[in-house]
Amino acid sequence: xxxxxxxxxxxxxxxxxIAVAIIAAVGAAALRSTEATVDSARWVAHTLxxxxxxxxxxxxLIEAETGVRGYVITGDTSYLAPYHSARTTLSSxxxxxxxxxxxxxxxxxRLDSLETLVTTRLERFQWTIExxxxxxxxxxxxxxxxxxxxxxxxxxxxxxxxMEDDETExxxxxxxxxxxxxxxxxxxxWTGVLVALALAGLASVLVGREMAGRRVAEERLRLLVGSVxxxxxxxxxxxxxxxxxxxxxxxxxxxxxxxxxxxHFARFFTPEDVAAGxxxxxxxxxxxxxxxxxxxxxxRKDGSRFWADVVITAVRDDRGALLGFAKVTRDLTERKLAExxxxxxxxxxxxxxxxxxxxxxxxxxxxxxxxxxxxxxRIFGFASNEVIGRPLTALMPERFRxxxxxxxxxxxxxxxxxVIGKTVELAGRRKDGTEFPLELSLATWKHGAEVAFTAxxxxxxxxxxxxxxxxxxxxxxxxxxxxxxxxxxxxxxDLRAPxxxxxxxxxxxxxxxxxxxxxxxxDFLQRVRGAxxxxxxxxxxxxxxxxxxxxxxQVGEVDLSALAAATAADLKKSDPxxxxxxxxxxxxxxxxxAGLMRIVLQNLLGNAWxxxxxxxxxxxxxxxxxxxxxxxxxxxxxxxxxxxxxAAKLFGAFQRLHGAAEFPGSxxxxxTVQRIILRHGGxxxxxxxxxxxxxxxxxx
Amino acid sequence: MHDRSILLVExxxxxxxxxxxxxxxxxxxxxxxxxxxxxxxLDLLFGTGPHAGxxxxxxxxxxxxxxxxxxxxxxxxxxxxxxxxxxxxxxxLTSSREERDVVSGYGLGAxxxxxxxxxFGQFVEAVRQLGLYWLVLNEPPPRPDAA
Lengths: 700, 147
Hints:
The structure holds two protein chains of two kinds. By secondary structure, chain A is α+β, with helices and mostly antiparallel strands. Chain A has helices spanning 8-74, 81-100, 105-146, 149-227, 247-253, 257-260, 271-275, 278-289, 333-355, 374-380, 384-387, 398-414, 461-512, 519-548, 560-574, 594-611, 669-679; strands spanning 231-236, 291-299, 305-316, 322-331, 359-364, 369-372, 423-429, 435-447, 450-459, 555-559, 579-584, 589-593, 617-627, 630-637, 684-689, 693-698. Chain A has five domains: 8-199, Up-down Bundle (Four Helix Bundle (Hemerythrin (Met), subunit A)); 228-338, Beta-Lactamase; 356-455, 2-Layer Sandwich (Beta-Lactamase), CATH 3.30.450; 460-551; 552-698, 2-Layer Sandwich (Heat Shock Protein 90). In chain A, the strands form four sheets. Chain A has a five-stranded antiparallel sheet. A five-stranded mixed sheet of chain A has the order 11-13-14-16-15. Chain A is rod-shaped and about 245 Å long. By secondary structure, chain B is α/β, with parallel strands linked by helices.
C-alpha cells in the first residue's frame, strides 16, 4: 500500500502526480507516433514527386526527339512544338528536382550529370534542326545518325533510373525508421494507458475505501453524539446560531431540533446574563482562548433554570479560520442543589450546635476534645479554648476516668462499643470541680481511617430533681389511690350495712307493729325505707363511677350493636308492659373495653328508657354518623329531653335536670359515661329539646 | 354428728338480726349457730380454742367477708383446706359487690355468692331462695364423721 502513514490528501496528491506524468508521457508518445506517420507520408510524397518529375522530364525528352525527327523527315516546323516546350519545361523540372533533392548530395551529383546529358541532347537537337534547314533532309539525316542520339538517351535513362532507385531506396530506409519510431510510440501510449487505468483503478479503490471508512466513522460519531443523553452537544456558527442538536441537548434544554436549529444560542442564557452581554462575551472568550468553560445558570425551553457545566470549544479549519463553536453542556442542577442542600444542612447543624442548650462536643480517637459548643461551655464552665486538645477525662469525676480510658482503648482496638449509640446517665465535673448528673448520647464516626466521637450531653440535674419530685408525687398518689380504694371498699361494705338496718328494721316495724302505727307512722317508715334504698343505689352508682377509673383498659373488639341489643332486651324484660321500639344500627364494631362499654350502653339506654317513661309509645335509636372526620355513636330518644341551656351540667356527678319525683336517679350515670369515654380518648356531648327528646353522642 | 344447723358468720348484730328474721320469715327452722368473727368460726368448725373437742357440723355456712380477726376469705380457704370441711356448702353473704371479692370467693371454692341487698324485701327473697336450694333441694355431700 502507498505510505500507510500518509494522509489521504497526500496520497491523493501523489497518485495524481503519477497519473499526470503518465498521461503526459502517453501524450508525448502519441504525438511522436503521429509525427512519424506524417513524416513518413511526406517522404512517400517526396519520393513520388521526384520520380514523377524524373519520368516527366524523360518523357519530354522523348517527345522532343520524336518532334525533331518528324521535322527532319518532313521539314514541317510544326513538328518542332514539343521540342520548344521541352526546352522550357525541362529546365524548370531540373530546377525543381534540384530543390527537392537539395539535402541529398549523391542525387545532386546525379542531377548534375543529368543536366549535362539533357543540355547536350538539346544542343544536339538544335544542331540537327539547323542542318535540316540549311542542308535539307539528307544533311539532317546525316546529323541524326552521326549525332549519337540513341547513346545519349540511353545515358539519360540510366541516370534517371539510378535516381529513381535511390529515391525508392531512401523511402524504404526512412519508412522503416519511422515505422520503428511509431511502434515504440504506440507501445508507450498503450503501456501508459494501461498504467494510467491501473492507477485510476487503484486510486478509485483507495479513495472509495477511505471515503467509506470516513462515512462509517462519521456515522458512528453522528450516532454517538446523537445518542448522548447526559450531555447537550451541539454546534453553533461563529455568530452564535445553532447548527446541530443532539438528543442530550433536547433532553436537557427541552427544544426539539426543528425548534432550535438556526436560533441564536443567547436564548439559553438567563435574561440577566443576556442583559449583561454574556453570550457575546462567552463566544469572544472561546474564540480568543480556543476554549471556554463555566458553571452557571441556564434556561430551558419552559423557562426553568438549570445549573449547567458549559464547555465551548472554537472550531477552526486548517488555515485557522473560525468555523464555529462546539458546545458541550451538562445539567448539574441536582449536584448544585445537593451542594446547596449540604451547605444549608451544614449551616443548620452549625447553628444547631451553636444554639443548642445541650453540650455538643467531639473528640478524636485519643479521646482529646476537638469541638466544644457554647452549650458545653455553659454546662461545664470551661471556655472552648481551655479544653480543646485536652482529654475528655477533664470533664469527668475522678472515679469515672479509668473506666473511660479502658472503654476508649477497647473501642479503638476492637470496635466493641458499650456506651456508643446509647443514652446513658453518668456524672460530669464542672470547671469548679462540682459534680452534676448528665445524660450522654455518644456517637462514633469514621473520617477516612480516623475514628472520632461526638457526644451530646445534657445537664439533667434539674430533671433529676423533677424526676425525684415526680416519683415522690407518684408514690403519694399511689398511696392516696390505695387509700381511696380501701375507702371505696369499706364504703361498699360499711355504709350499706346501716342502710340495710334502717330498711330492714323499718320493714320489721311495719310488719310486727302494724296495728300500733297509724297511717302517718306507717308513711314515715315507708319514707325511711325509700331513703335507705335510694342511699343504697347512690352508693352503688358511686362505687361503679370510681370503678371505671381504676384498672387497666382491656381493649379489644366490641360489637356495640350486640351490646345495645342485649341491654335493650334486659330493659324490655324489666317492664314488658312498656311500648318502646329500639332501632339499633348493625355492625357498630369498635376497639374498646367491653366491660366499660357495657356500662356506657346500660347508662345511655337506661336513661332513654327512663326518660321516655311518660310516653305511651317511645322510640330509641342507636347508630353512628360522621363527626369531624371521626365516627360518632349516638343514642337518641323521643322522651322528656332537656333544655340545651343546662347541657353543660348534664355530665357532672350528682347533677340532675329532672326532679327525683319526676324521674328517679342518682345523677351519676352520665358522669360515669363521660369518664369511660374520656378514658378511651373520646368525646361525649348531648343535644336535647324539652319534651322532644335527647341525643347523647360519643366518639372513641 | 349431723345437726342440720346453719353456721352464720356475721359480726354486725343488725345484720344477724335481719338474717335471722329473713330465715324465720321463710320458715327455715334450722338451728342458727353464730360466730362473731372469723377466728370464732374456725374454732367452732374445727373444735379448737373455746370449742376444743366439740366441733360444730353445720349443714350450711353463711359467711360474711368483712370480719374482725380473720376475714371471710381466709375462713373459706381454711374450710376448703381441711379434709373434714372440704365439701361443706359455703354461701358468701356480704355487702360487697367488688369483682375481686366475687372472683376470690368463687376461686376459693364458695358454693354461692349473694350480695345483701339494702331492700329488706329483696333480702328476704334471696334468703328464701338460698334456703330452698341449699337446705331443701340440694343433696348434701356425705359427711366424713357420719361415715
